[in-house]
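job 3f2a | input accepted
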Amino acid sequence: MAALSAAVTTQNSRPRAGRSSYVVVSGDTIYAGSLVGTNAAGFLVPWADTAANKFVGIALETVVGDGSLECRVNENGDILKGATVASAVQASVNSLVYCETDNPADLDLSASTNVDAIGIVIRYISAGVADVMLFTPTEHEAKA
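job 3f2a | predicted structure (144 res):
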């Protein structure tokens, strides 16, 4: 195929993204606005640098887990506008973003020990501040 020489219309969609509910693991508290994933057993847990965790999105409500209660999660691959990203510079655009906690303020460009990237820098704003597009669960799995 040849490179484009004029504008084209491209149809885009985000299949398998949206909102979902997951059962919260007993003993953990999921806070609204926190980053969340599933553990090896398939329960929703606060995001952490733990082997076998899979990123799913941002919690929409606070739930204290008892092994049966569900928490709604936004899986859209949201954009975190003006997010604090340790070490972000202009050259960080299109770089993978990691996080070792459930706190979206703990984003980092350095790879975590046990988990894969949860998003990508899409816009540099200023030193240590950028817009970050989070991965959908499918994108996170494809990246792994």
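job 3f2a | The chain has a mean pLDDT of 91.
job 3f2a | closed
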